[in-house]
């Protein structure tokens, strides 16, 4: 009987010891015993100067009071420019970003005379440093004045969180070439290069509106006449179109 009591006592002690050891033991991998903190290092994107090639396509014409004979086709008078632009970041850390856009461009102004029966023979010529409208001997399929200019625009561009972009600025340029192109009905075209009393330097205002990464609307306006004072019409020049 004493032996049985002794064995029972030893078994109870062993069971108690094992239970206590199990309740007090901790595992270094027990997720409930540790709190894990994760930190994410924020990265700041640094914007660099980028370059892009753009094409401007639209229509242009003279504004203001023009002398008789200066009747131009509103759609046929085209404006085209090839522009190599650099985008310089000024303030780009917030949701609204400000950039300076500039770079050289080559621009062509095409002023196409009307082909109606009343003015279908009008052509522009230079006589004794004066621009005059003369009548050709036959009907003309094409009669126009073309100017080629090297411009340098400077535009402040704002881009909003929605992707809407708006730019406003100015440009100045020098005349590279100018000529008239006359093509009689059924005949060959003839180009005549000359200064045509055009100022060697021109300047104007420009604006652009659109969405980031999409073609944009543009407008340009030259308040001063492209012709020398007293040698040609006192007219402004405007152009509107799409920038690709």
TrEMBL record:
Signal sequence, renumbered to the chain: 1-21
- Establish whether keyword Signal is in the entry: yes
Q: Which UniProt keywords apply?
A: Signal
What protein is this chain from?
Outer membrane protein beta-barrel domain-containing protein
């Amino acid at each position: 009987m004493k032996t049985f009591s002794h064995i029972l006592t030893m078994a109870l002690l062993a069971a108690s010891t094992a239970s206590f050891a199990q309740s007090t033991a901790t595992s270094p991998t027990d997720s409930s015993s540790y709190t894990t903190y994760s930190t994410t290092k924020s990265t700041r994107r640094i914007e660099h100067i980028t370059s892009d090639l753009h094409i401007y396509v639209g229509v242009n014409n003279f504004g203001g009071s023009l002398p008789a004979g200066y009747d131009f086709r509103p759609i046929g008078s085209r404006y085209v420019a090839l522009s190599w632009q650099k985008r310089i970041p000024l303030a780009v850390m917030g949701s609204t970003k400000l950039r300076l856009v500039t770079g050289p461009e080559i621009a062509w102004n095409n002023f196409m005379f009307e082909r109606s029966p009343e003015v279908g023979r009008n052509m522009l010529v230079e006589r004794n440093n004066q621009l005059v409208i003369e009548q050709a001997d036959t009907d003309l399929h094409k009669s126009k004045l073309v100017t080629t200019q090297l411009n340098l625009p400077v535009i402040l561009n704002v881009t909003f969180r929605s992707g809407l972009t708006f730019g406003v600025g100015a440009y100045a340029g020098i005349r590279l070439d100018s000529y008239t192109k006359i093509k009689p009905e059924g005949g060959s075209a003839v180009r005549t290069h000359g200064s045509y009393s055009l100022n060697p330097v021109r300047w104007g205002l420009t604006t652009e509106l659109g969405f980031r990464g999409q073609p944009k609307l543009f407008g340009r306006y030259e308040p001063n006449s492209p012709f020398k004072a007293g040698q040609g019409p006192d007219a402004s020049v405007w152009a509107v179109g799409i920038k690709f």
